[in-house]
Amino acid sequence: MLSVGSKAKDFVLYSHNLEKVKLSEQEEPVILAFYPGAFTSVCERELCSFRDSLAKLGKLKATVLGISVDSPFANKAFAEKNKLNFKLLSDFGAKVSRDYCGVHEDFLGIPGFVVSKRAVFIIKNGEVRYAWITEDPSKEPPYEEIFTLLSKI
What pLDDT, on the 0 to 100 scale, is given for residue 19? Predict the structure, then answer.
C-alpha cells in the first residue's frame, strides 16, 4: 500500500467509455477515489459528493478519477445514472487497488469476490501527497480534509 511521500505507481486502466487512461498523463493534482462497487449506497454518495464538488475542485485544478474492480460497462451505467462528469476506471484485475490501498477478499462472505477498499489519494508531481484508506466500506472519506489539502498544494 502507498503512503504519503511515496512515489505514485503509474498505471493504465480503461475508463467507463473504454478509453485508456494513464495516471502520469493526467493534469495534476489528481484525486484517486477507490470505491468498492458501483450501485452501492455509500459509493453513490461518495462519487456524487465529488461530482457536486467539482466546481470547487475546478478552482483547485484537480482531476478526479474513480477506480473500482467493476467492469467498464457497470461503471458506464453507474456514471450515467448518477450524471458523473469524471472518469470511472476499471481495475478488473484489482492490481492497482492492491498496489495503492488493498482489497477486501471474499467481500460480504462471498468466496472469490474481491473489491477495492475505500480510499482517496492525492497525487502531485508523481508523489502521494495525501492518503486515506478505511477498512470500513460504509465510511465516507473526509471531504473537507481533502479540499483543504488541495488548496495548499
Answer: 97
Reported as type and span, the H/E element at residue 145 is: helix 143-152
Helix ranges restricted to H, 33-142: 41-52, 54-59, 72-82, 95-100
Among 32, 33, 43, 67, which one carries the catalytic annotation? Answer: 43
Domain-by-domain residue ranges, the chain?
Answer: 12-17+25-152
Residue range 68-90: average pLDDT? 96
Instruction: Quote the CA–CA distance of 68 and 89 in Å, as a whole number.
Output: 7
Active site residue 48: no
**Looking at the domain 12-17+25-152, which fold is it?**
Glutaredoxin (3.40.30)
Distance of CA 27 to CAs 31, 58, 82, 116, 144, Å? 10, 12, 24, 24, 21
3-state secondary structure of 7: strand
**Paired sense of beta strands 30-34 and 87-90, if any:** unpaired
> Residue 128 is inside which H or E element, if any?
strand 127-134
Single-letter residue type at 17:
N
Averaged over 3-26, what is the pLDDT?
96
